[in-house]
């Protein structure tokens, strides 16, 4: 569900709490009780800690493989592939590659152990019999990777349950890019019975009328696309509307 434009961040700058109010969403449904927030997430606590944890999560399979690899050709090939996957996952974590982060982490924890198992099988076929202590290292590697997978799966399922309640709004980058001559004057977040959405009021610096602004934005009809692959099954929808006074662009979940 998406909503009409609101004051910036949904509250007055001096307000300590947000007001509870009724709004009419653009879909024309009955008004829903809405709680509006600041429109911004709280500052991350120890952001570098999460970066470090994300990097450690990504390189764990490569480190595990280093402890059980026995031959150089297979060891370097599998290790290089695992490091390449770690770089891709870190790029997703940092936003350098656009991809659903929960889905990327789940796929990584599934594919990395499979790759390690393939590498171990190749070494067993073409290499010498492993030493006795290798078995304990292999069992430790299986246990460690299994724990990483289970933890990722539990967190992923928790995330899927959380988003099913519609408690989050799309990020600011979900709003459409503005063409030259059109600027944003405010942005806010609203939440109703059907979920949360993000909206922004835009104006024309060239004196365009409201219908002309919508045509310039290219949103005569709402556009939707999948938000994720596995855990996030929602569609993100963006569009533009005018209420007789302003033109609003919005992004919401379906």
Keywords:
254 residues, disordered N terminus, 2 domains, 5 helices, two-stranded antiparallel sheet, five-stranded antiparallel β-sheet, alpha+beta
Description:
- With 254 residues, this protein is of the alpha+beta class.
- It has two domains: 8-39 and 169-253, no CATH class; 47-164, no CATH class.
- It contains five helices and seven strands.
- The protein has helices at residues 47-68, 72-93, 101-126, 132-164, 210-217, and strands at 20-23, 32-35, 182-192, 195-204, 223-226, 235-242, 247-253.
- The strands form two sheets. The chain has a five-stranded antiparallel sheet with strand order 3-4-7-6-5. It has a two-stranded antiparallel sheet with strand order 1-2.
- Strand 6 (235-242) and strand 7 (247-253) form a beta hairpin.
- Helix 1 (47-68) packs antiparallel against helix 4 and helix 3 packs antiparallel against helix 4.
- It is elongated and about 80 Å long.
Give the neighbour order of strands across the main sheet: 3-4-7-6-5
For the sheet with most strands, the description reads: 5 strands, antiparallel
Regions with little confidence, pLDDT below 50 for 5+ residues: 1-45
**What is the string of SSEs from the N terminus onward?**
EEHHHHEEHEEE
Task: Give the strand content.
Answer: 15-25%
What is the rounded Rg? 24 Å
Structural class: alpha+beta
Distance between the termini: 7 Å
Number of DSSP strand runs: 7
Task: Count structural domains.
Answer: 2
Mean pLDDT: 80
Number of helices: 5
Principal-axes geometry comes out as elongated
